[in-house]
Amino acid sequence: MSRLSVEALELAVAALEEGLREYAEHPVLTMRDGVIQRFEIAMDLSWKLLQRTLKDILTINPGLIRTKEDMFRVAAEYALIKETVRWLGHYEARNQTAHIYDADLAAQVFDRISLFLPDVRELVARLKDAA
What is the rounded CA–CA span in Å between residue 43 and residue 62? Predict the structure, then answer.
């Protein structure tokens, strides 16, 4: 059985939380954009660790996971996450900010971070249990 380290994700979540605190003190667009970038990093680490956990720790048949939707669905079946649809929304928000910059879209993604944080904190705890 492989060992899985969630340390990088824990650090990314801590950086995201710190960015949110700093933005609360200094609400300027550059700070907001930095928080969004930290969200992108935390989201990327989240889905990659989910994928590794399913494949290497839980030894799920790779044929069951062809898309990100499949991955989040299977992760929910194994109680690594609670809501497939919510995680798909996090993933979609991450992808939108990576490809197009639009002030309204950036504001929507920034608002989504408040939904993401409790989900990613819970994911970290569940990944630690699975490792």
Answer: 21
SS3 state of residue 12: helix
What is the DSSP track for 56-122? IIS---GGG-SSHHHHHHHHHHTTS-S-HHHHHHHHHHHHHHHH---HHHHHHHHHHHHHHHHHHHH
What distance lies between CA 103 and its chain's CA centroid?
Answer: 22
* Domain architecture of the chain: domains with CATH: 7-130 (1.20.120.330)
pLDDT per residue as tens digits for the range 50-61? 999 999 989 998
Q: HSE, CB side, 13 Å, CA atoms: give it for residue 117.
A: 17
Which amino acid is present at 113? I
Interaxial angle between packed helices 103-130 and 29-52, expressed in degrees from 0 to 180 and rounded to the nearest 10: 40
What is the C-alpha separation between 86 and 46, in angstroms, rounded? 13
Model pTM?
0.92
